[in-house]
Amino acid sequence: MTADFRRKIILDTDPAIGIPGTDADDPIAIMLAVKDPRLELLGVTTIFGNCPPDLGARCATQVLAAAGRSDIPVAIGMATRMGGDLPELLQQAYAGARGKPGSIPLPALEDAHNHQHAVDFIIETVLAHPGEVTIVAIGAQTNIALAMVKEPKICAALHSIVFMGGALGFNAEYGRGNITPVAECNIWFDPQAADIVFRSGVDLTMVGLDVTNPSTGLVLAKEPVADIDATASPLAAMFKQVCATFLDAPMFEWSEGCVLYDPLAVAVAADPALGEFTQMAIAVETQGRLTLGQTVPQRDQPANMRVCSGIDGKAVVQNIVSTILA
After folding, report:
1. Which residues fall in a coiled-coil region (predicted)?
2. What is the pTM of this model?
């Protein structure tokens, strides 16, 4: 695909680098979004999750600098979910290691964002390129939902949204939730926001826990990480450091390696035919005391998204690594 036909994307993410207890997949997703020749990364917007969004902006800026793409804007987004609060477990995490910089040096905050709120950046960018922009949402969907509420015109102006989130239970071992027995963390962090996005009428693609797990082979193992030549480029060094931090202190101990949840969403944005997909009607539980944030298939309802239901994870991982290190 030539540069003229690259898919324009905004990456909405919660990246953390060098911080114990945070996932490696968000910064790797940024690297892939920058390096995949089929994509044109218009900007990065940050959201609460792995770390607070202002710290996430500093991390994203450092990743972009390592990739030689400091020209890509970074906009800081919401620090709370739509109701104005933050889950208690994140409050506790931010009071500890996940609320401050880790082992990788970061730029100062004033040098790490474009001084425009992520919600406004999304609105302005989508309306400037009607029908062309795909949002790749790999964190809580608060920024996107608030953009839709503030400017409903973006729903018709968006090309599509590809999101990493949700769990439908197709995979008995891994597909039933990673924050509660039934809810995946990105959706659980702000179910109200996900509900708005799911009902928006935008072309949606779901990449959930049923495919982003070790059973599909979507794992970057320790050995390939150890084999990365950190002297090859600043991006290779960053890649290796990010993975090493996760391997030393993983958020989820699902495998002996990094599960590439979020990079798969970027890969699907670059190649919409990657994997197997099923048209489905999916809703979000916003009220349940025990089921809050659960993504629920609905019978006798028109489909509102296509759901990734199968991938060759090993091939995807190999492609992601080779693309980033090319």
Report:
1. none
2. 0.96
